[in-house]
């Protein structure tokens, strides 16, 4: 009589072809799309990053304002 461990291995062997079909070749442009999304997320994170100091001078405020408005143009 097989042990429960042997039975699980046997079941997994039967599932291998189904899993191979499920995890087969990805869509052709999927890697490029993921890379583009990662770049977009990085840009959004950089935009949301807080300034290093709590008090900003007029020049720093103007530079930050230009940076935020320039990224939307």
Draw up the topology in text.
Elements: H1 4-22, H2 30-48, H3 58-72
Gist of the model:
This protein has helices spanning 4-22, 30-48, 58-72.
Structure overview:
With 73 residues, the chain is mostly helical. It has one domain. It is built from 3 helices and no strands.
Number of domains: 1
**What are the low-pLDDT stretches, counting only 5+ consecutive residues below 50?**
none
N-to-C series of helices and strands: HHH
State the share of residues found in helices, binned by percent: over 70%
Question: Termini separation (Å)?
Answer: 72 Å
Which class do the helix and strand fractions yield? mainly alpha
| Total number of strands | 0
Number of helices: 3
State the shape.
Answer: elongated
Could you tell me the strand content as a percent range? under 5%
* Sheet with most strands: none
Give the C-alpha Rg. Answer: 26 Å
Mean pLDDT across all amino acids: 77
Comma- or semicolon-separated keywords:
mainly alpha, elongated, 73 residues, 3 helices, 0% strand
């Amino acid at each position: 009589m097989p042990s429960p461990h042997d039975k699980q291995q046997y079941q997994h062997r039967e599932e291998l072809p189904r899993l191979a079909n499920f995890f087969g070749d990805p869509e052709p442009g999927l890697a490029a799309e993921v890379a583009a999304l990662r770049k977009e997320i990085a840009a959004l994170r950089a935009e949301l990053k807080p300034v290093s100091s709590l008090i900003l001078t007029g020049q720093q405020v103007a530079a930050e304002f230009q940076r935020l408005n320039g990224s939307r143009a």
